[in-house]
Each structure stands twice: as C-alpha cells, then as structure tokens.
Specification:
heterodimer; A: about 130 residues; about 0% helix; B: mainly beta; three-stranded antiparallel sheet
C-alpha cells in the first residue's frame, strides 16, 4: 500500500528556516507529481505547491503566500520529497501534508490529491 | 484569491440526504470542471471522494455524488450513515496565482 511519511516539523522562531521531508514507498515515485498541502490548527486546507516528475520537466509551482520563501525539491534516488521553508511567519503555523496526484485507469490527474501522509506540525512562534 | 465558500455545518438523521454547496467565482468553479471533494474525519488526513465535478474514485460509495451549476459546486450524501461524520472540503483549479483553492470546509453531523 502507498505510504507517505512526513518528518522535520517542530517549533521555529519567526524568520527562521525548516526543512520538511516526505518519504514515499510502494509506488513509482519517479513518475509522480507531488504536492504539499497545509492546514492551520482548526482551519481549512491550503495548497502550498507542487513539483512535477523529472520526465515532465521537474518544474515547481507555488501558492502566492509562500512563493519566494518556500522551495520544493525531490530526490528520486531516495524516493523523498522536500519542502525547504525560509523566512517563516507565524501564519505558516500548520500541519503540512505531502500528497500524490490521483491516477486511475492509467491516467493521472494533476488537479486532484489522492494519497496523503499523516502530516507534520510546524509551529512558528517566538 | 479567497477560499471557496461552504456552509460551516450541515446535519441530518441516518438515512436522510444532505447537500453541501461550494461557491466560487468565474476564475475557478465557474470556468473549469476541475472540482473535487475531500472527506476528513477528525484527526485524520483528507481523502479524495469526488473528482472532475462528479466522478467517484474506486471504493467510494455511490451515495456520494457531485454536481456543478455556474459558480457553485455541490456534494450530496444520500442515505446518511454515522461513518459519514467528518469535515468536507471542496477544491478547484483556479486561474489565479495560487493554482488550487480549497473551500472553507463543512462539518457534517449525523444526528
């Protein structure tokens, strides 16, 4: 069964940095477009950004609130997705989930998020 | 880009039907069929239950159905069951700078 395990969350001061990891298994990570979605405590979901597979260009897209501060990368040799977060703000406090693109009958739909990890909590506070 | 608008809560008795609305704009829901719905029971990660407005992934019960009219998408749960208690979020592709926008979320309570 597909597994996504996030790690790296914790408490960081405003202006600080943190790198999250997402270890993937039981699917072909190399071919997968991956996204990060976050959820502030007691709040709704917010798309953070995504990275395409290398075969599709490996490019990244980001939501406006994090563009220029967050960087998504991947190491296909380690089946691992990363989220480098710099210049953190209190409003970045959230559980961060990594997700896969939804695929069915051999077709993948980049607009939908299928498997999700358990999430890792990032708290930005002084 | 603001979140899509959903009612904070809906409730129903077992066996009844409930409908959750998701109102966006002509930049998202109104212009694209790229609408999805997610179910999130307390303390768990979200689960995709509807994609492309009205399609169900394999394994999702057919009592969940989706539709769209103009700038508003809807999720209907027919034959409500206790296990359907959860938060539900809609999502849409958007032509704005954020690419994907989620709804504000709706808590479904089974009375």
């Amino acid at each position: 069964e597909v597994q996504l395990v996030e790690s790296g969350g914790g408490l960081v001061k405003p202006g600080g940095s943190l790198r999250l990891s997402c270890a993937a298994s039981e699917f072909t990570f190399t071919n997968a477009w991956m996204s990060w979605v976050r959820q502030a405590p007691g709040k709704g979901l917010e798309w953070v950004g995504r990275i395409k597979s290398k075969i599709d260009g490996g490019t990244t897209d980001y939501a406006a609130p994090v563009k220029g501060r967050f960087t998504i990368s991947r190491d296909d040799s380690k089946n691992t997705l990363y989220l480098q977060m710099n210049s953190l703000k209190t409003e970045d406090t959230a559980v961060y989930y990594c997700t896969t693109t939804f695929c069915t009958n051999g077709v993948c739909y980049s607009d939908y998020f299928d498997y999700w990890g358990q999430g890792t909590l990032v708290t930005v506070s002084s | 880009q603001s979140a899509l608008t959903q009612p904070p809560s809906v409730s129903g008795s077992p066996g009844q039907s409930v409908t959750i609305s998701c109102t966006g704009t002509s930049s998202d829901v109104g212009s694209y069929k790229r609408v999805s719905w997610y179910q999130q029971p307390p303390g768990t990660a979200p689960k995709l239950i509807i994609y492309e407005v009205s399609n169900r992934p394999s394994g999702v019960p057919d009592r969940f159905s989706g539709s769209k009219s103009g700038n508003t998408a809807s999720l209907t749960i027919s034959g409500l069951q206790a296990e359907d208690e959860a938060d539900y979020y809609c999502s849409s592709y958007t032509s704005s700078s954020i690419l994907y926008v989620f709804g504000t979320g709706t808590k479904v309570t089974v009375l």
